[in-house]
Amino acid sequence: MRLLLAEDEKELSRALVTVLKYNHYSVDEVYDGMEALEYLENGSYDGVILDVMMPKLDGISVLKKIRAKGNQVPVLILSAKSALEDKVLGLDCGADDYLTKPFATKELLARVRAMMRRKTTELDTKLVFEDLELSPTTFQLGCKGEWVYLANKEYQIMEMLIINPRCVLSAGQFIEVVWGCDSDVENNVVWTYISRLRRILKQLGSKAVIRTAKGIGFALEREND
């Protein structure tokens, strides 16, 4: 799952990014409203954590602008404003949830999970390909009743492959989503993770394979396609 975190308090932002990545989320972080708007207009996200009081453009204005353009990405608002009127305003402007500061990270994670579950239910998304099933709640990959726990980035790469079956995805696409737009990770790191996932598919006895399109990228396909 790919999240955008828009929070101008850099120390808090770094702490949240660490927690979110530890819990299997890919995170892009921005520090002002204009940057958040730019990322949302040019990128694809599964959810947004949006602070209200930010430089250049406040979170409520960002929310109004993306909703006006038809962007229905789930949004969790963070705010030091705890008055009922502020919560009502945020929710009425299109937020899916509203969390006041200070907050416990456990509560933040629970609210993010709930937000993602609602999105999954609404879209009826099933992370299934052939005999494979990927669980967004347990971060396990299963085949014929056998399950293997995936590490953080293994899960995110497999999620991209299974959501885009038979589509060739480049190493650059994996790096952008899993490691972030500003990452200096090189292609050989992606190849290492692909090799691990291939071993896991073989271990599970799946008919699905990750094929290499030489010089282009990788695709999840049925073994004899």
UniProtKB/TrEMBL annotation:
GO BP of this protein: regulation of DNA-templated transcription
Name of protein: Stage 0 sporulation protein A homolog
Location of the Response regulatory domain: 2-116
DNA-binding region: 124-222
Modified residues (4-aspartylphosphate): D51
Function comment: May play the central regulatory role in sporulation. It may be an element of the effector pathway responsible for the activation of sporulation genes in response to nutritional stress. Spo0A may act in concert with spo0H (a sigma factor) to control the expression of some genes that are critical to the sporulation process.
Organism (species): Roseburia zhanii
CDD domains (UniProt xref): trans_reg_C
Positions of the OmpR/PhoB-type domain: 124-222
Keyword field: DNA-binding, Phosphoprotein, Transcription, Transcription regulation, Two-component regulatory system
Gene Ontology CC: cytosol; protein-DNA complex
A Pfam family of this chain: Response_reg
InterPro entries per record: CheY-like_superfamily, OmpR/PhoB-type_DNA-bd, Sig_transdc_resp-reg_C-effctor, Sig_transdc_resp-reg_receiver, WalR-like, WH-like_DNA-bd_sf
Molecular function via GO: phosphorelay response regulator activity; transcription cis-regulatory region binding
